Amino acid sequence: MTQRSSDQSCVEAVGRPASRDGPLVRPADCSCDEHLSLAATPSSAVDSRTPSKAETEEALRVLRERYRTTIANTVAAFRRLSAQLAVIASAPEVLEALRRELHRVHGAAGSFGFPEASKLAAELEEAAIRWVEDPRLDADRRAAMTLEFANALERCVLGEGGVGDPSFIAQLHRAAIEATERSRPERSESCPEVIIVEDDTSFVEMLRYALESAGFTFLHYATGPEALDGLLSLNVGHRTPLVLLDVDLPGLDGFSLHERLRVERPGVYSTVFLTARGGEAEQLRAYRAGAIDYVPKPVNLRILMAKIPNWLERARPGSA
Predict the structure, then answer these.
(1) To the nearest 10°, the Cα dihedral for 128, 132, 134, 140?
(2) CA angle 122, 128, 134 (to 5 degrees)
(3) Residue 228 belongs to domain with CATH number
(4) pLDDT digit string (tens) for 34-86?
(5) Range of the domain at 88
(6) Which residues are within 8 A (CB) of 133 and not within 5 positions of it... i.e. 6 or more apart?
(7) Which of 29, 118, 262, 320 has the fewest other C-beta atoms within 10 Å?
């Protein structure tokens, strides 16, 4: 496996960033003893790696504040898209870029504790899908609606206080720089326990915390084709890795990726869909295709961290 360098820094409490240039296997370098769940029992090695409620709450606080520090870039992206729609309201590439950005906010914002932002993004995402189907629908209002959403997103996440506590944000940035300087991923030929296929870096950050704090190794792919190439050739040995799979992926959607793996590597991977697409049809399609679970975004971090050990237990060879 080729070593890759990371391109996004993050705070010490969260860990090193996932690579958007390629896969990165993460070592289980944190002590399991430091992350024992209050509810864990000695008889369950998997459950013992679940962090305590206090640790989860502190992590969510840090993740939430970091999300707030990055939202300005997202708001600026929506304002640029609004300006482009004001020129050509039906430009396919602009509408697709808008839909994808809205999809990311829909999935991530609520997971970080901003449910209103997630709800607004979901509503405008549905409108954007209709705009692609009907070039005349809301043609004279698309730019204004996108700009209104950008302003609403800024208010929902930043609130009246602007960008948040400057001293805490400065601490985050210092920790991010230090983490980047320390992090030089080591080459590893071992198969990870969990494989994340997700293009939303904010959501990957949340998953990274959940996995690292519990001591699980993992691998990240940011696009469908990249994941397909990697997973078709990955040497899994006697392990059945758990794949946390988004549906809306660049290049190849999650359902198509799952089907390809079922045909070309049957029984090698266990799949859990984590996606903003929460419709009944999508869930039925996933379960009928053999997924062990389907979790609509936004997700609750505490519940997610409770589910991960159970998913891994089910993914073990020989499990019922």
Answers:
(1) 60
(2) 140
(3) 3.40.50.2300
(4) 333 333 334 444 455 666 777 777 878 888 888 998 899 999 999 999 999 99
(5) 63-161
(6) none
(7) 320
